[in-house]
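INFO batch 0412 | record 1 of 1 | parsing
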Amino acid sequence: MDRVHRTRACGWTAGTLLLTAGLAAPAGAFVASIDAYRVDRDGAVFLSDGFDNGLEPPEAAGFAGAYSVFGVIPDTAESGSRLALDTSLGVFSFNAAGDPRQTVQVNHLTDTTGANPSLGLYRSHNLSVAGLFDIVPMPGPFSIYAVGVRDFQIGGGTREQLQLQVSRNDATAFGAVRVALVKQVFGAGGGSTGLGSVLFEPPSDATRIALKLEHLADTDSFTASFRFWDTSGPLTTDFTVLGTGTMFNDRNYVRPVFFASTQPVPEPGTYALLAAGLCAIAWATRRRRAPAPGRHA
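INFO prediction complete | emitting tokens
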């Protein structure tokens, strides 16, 4: 690589690193708390985790390696029969719509090949995926905790994700905390689509909310519902149904997840990093457009 190309590459690399450092500042981060996670298959418990043994993911209810973690979950995160999901320890990435996010996510490692029927959550099964979360303050401009189901592209990567979430998004016309069913499709032509939502209006004595996705065998969709709990159990007798979302478009399986996410907001001191990153990228772009010395344009 000649000196001109090395200089351009360094400009792009430096700009990207500075821009990422600025965006990934943890201001606005919050801690979500999940009290229980449960998956049922064909009327039987597939996995139930009460987060009560002091062993954090990737361990799950006595099973080593049942989860993988996107972000960092410290050794002290599981305490008092709940698991803390600290978004300041999450991984910086983008959602399907291209919005920056800082996310800590736990992936339930189920079969995605069809080769291990005892470990699979397939289209042919009746399925439910549920998470019981503490009701916590939701900081702006964006914050979320959720359960979801995913499928994957051949060779890795998420293709689709259906998530039932409690979220605050100050950029929307609603501006209030809502319970929402959202479909994300990653890749060309994809994006994020809201499928249904209601205002988050817990009873005054509610301390927790149960989020649940359900799938009827041999169909292509999940239904979404929720209900509020206090410290002793459910406060409402029936789930409030939000809507449906399709999965299984060209896959026979799903993999459940639960997570918390925030929009990284730069601290005042990181605006300099953002400006430096943008300047470096702009400089590298101008160098790319300009002809190298001794060469024709």
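INFO post-check: The chain has two domains: 1-25+268-297, 29-265.
INFO record closed
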